[in-house]
Amino acid sequence: MSPTASTKDFRVAIIGGGMCGLACAVGLAKRGIASDVFEAAPKFDEVGAGVGIGPNALRALKGIGVLDAVLARLDRDDRTARRMLYLSGTGAHEEVYDYNNSSEFTDADTGLGMYRPAFLDALLPLMDPKTAHFNKRCTSIETLDTGDYRLHFADGTTHDAGLVIGADGIKSTSRNAVVGERKVLQFTNTVAYRGLVPRDTLLQDGLKSDLSQRVHNFVGIDKHIIVFPIQSGKIINIVAFSTDNSVPPGSVAVAGPWVQSVPQQELLDTYAGWGPDAQLLLKYMKTPSKWFIHTLTPLDTFVCGRIALVGDAAHGMTPHLGSGVGQGFEDVFVLCQLLGHPTTTKANLEEVLKAYDTIRQPRANMVLRESFRAGVIYESYGKLGYGLGEMGGHLARIWEPIWRHDLDGDVAAAIESLKER
């Protein structure tokens, strides 16, 4: 595979062409670093529907150098402060807690909701198409005598690179080269039913809740429904969660695909007895997809030698704080800044990746743990200690450590740590 010019004495292989993999490829290219992206599918594609991108993730995208391209694909209405309104899932949907505190929110707290394929459409024009390689499912990574790596693919081909970035998602193969093949994935006992519904359809059928601007979370015992607008409020993204708390997380293995099409009746039966707006949302999810939510047990490290993990490959988490992809973007920003630093060469790549790991592993794993805790809080509404007047104590400032984080300070700390190595 023909290399393109690079300002560095190493070339990067990126395994996985999802949101984080493409952001990484573009970010490296903007810093004069050549890379190749190896995608298992026949084309770049994103599984899923809408995705929420918090203010910290937007700052990471700006630092990577792709935010303007992303915003160009959106209307201004898609950028809203991520101020979640919690409502009871049952009864008349009384307000449980308003994560608003308008006096504490600023323009810096603005996030957005967008359609995942729109993100890829924004980034693809920024890529050199010759660096994209499809139908390349990585099966293993071999360390060569030179210290470089040889990627082996399911089609029998190979590719050599001086640095490997694993962006191949929660079922990552590249992760095996970092932490071995020990069991790190676990089923959380939570499933999520996903769907998209036109807002006008809901309004015409009597929807009372105003879903045009804010993120809404309908909460109840062992269940919650996250709803937010995309495409300028024309489409409502719905994710309905249900958890089996009769057994501990990780004790049940999922047989079959992690994403399945299911009859709508299964969804309706799961939320029988919920309130009118919740029922209305589910009524128009005619062909829901059912996702079996898995997470990683926190990894001790995201790197090994000159292999680094980003995104779900490093810290696949529950979506309950809407921060999984944002943490991936933070990974990519820090990594791009370190790799693009003038002092970074092939000779010190291992030290550079250790600096990346020192910064990113603790923070991303903190968000992983807090995301799981958030889901427990949402689905405890109605239990002892989680009543109508008590939820605020559990939910107040739950996002602030995630949103209000100094990414530039992270990079500065990582660079400073290199001087001490």
Automatic annotation (TrEMBL):
SUPFAM superfamilies: FAD-linked reductases, C-terminal domain (SSF54373), FAD/NAD(P)-binding domain (SSF51905). Residues 10-179, 300-370 form the FAD-binding domain. GO terms for biological process: secondary metabolite biosynthetic process. Keywords: FAD, Flavoprotein, Oxidoreductase. GO terms for molecular function: FAD binding; oxidoreductase activity. It comes from the Eukaryota. This is FAD-binding domain-containing protein.
